Amino acid sequence: MKSDNQIFSLSTGYGPFISEGTTALLYCFPVTSGHIDKLFEFGISEIDFAILKSNNYKFKALYYILFHEIQSTFGTGHPSPRKYTNKEFEYVKNRVLHISNSELELYIKEFSRDKNLSEDYFQLFSKNLFLE
Q1: pLDDT (tens digit, 9 = 90+) per residue, 27-81?
Q2: Of 63, 64, 95, 122, which is the most buried if we count CB atoms within 10 A?
């Protein structure tokens, strides 16, 4: 997925990117659940953008957390789909972007355990999505 207004991404294919909206920068990212693909967009600040652009680990971690959180809110056969809110996005974004990398590593491990994902799933997810 790509936008005409895309200004930054770590990959050329399916994955998150930053675009210039009409009034703000947007963090845009696709999520698939079952047979449904959705593109989500949330406003970010210039400071957030600077962090995402300068720290690949945080760029990847933000998508990893958001992808798995949002995927659980919709999809084929989901009993009660709901909208992922801006407040939820802000909480995750601030938690991922504004802590140290070592604190983020612990957060990812905790998140993965809570979602019943293997300890090395973040590395596999990132490696497959962000070919470097």
Answers
A1: 999 988 777 888 999 999 999 999 999 999 999 999 999 999 998 887 666 677 7
A2: 63
As a whole number of angstroms, the distance between CA 117 and CA 120 comes to 8
Residue 24 to residues 31, 32, 101, 120, Cα–Cα distance (Å): 22, 25, 27, 35
Strand 6-9: give its sheet, edge to edge.
Answer: 6-9, 17-20, 25-33, 36-44
The rounded distance, in Å, linking the Cα atoms of 94 and 44 is 10
Closest CA to 69 of 50, 93, 103: 93
Q: For residue range 84-123, list pLDDT tens digits in order.
A: 899 999 999 999 999 999 999 999 999 999 999 998 899 9
SS3 54: helix
Q: Are 21 and 43 contacting, i.e. CB atoms less than 8 angstroms apart? A: yes
Q: How far apart are the first and last CA of the chain?
A: 18
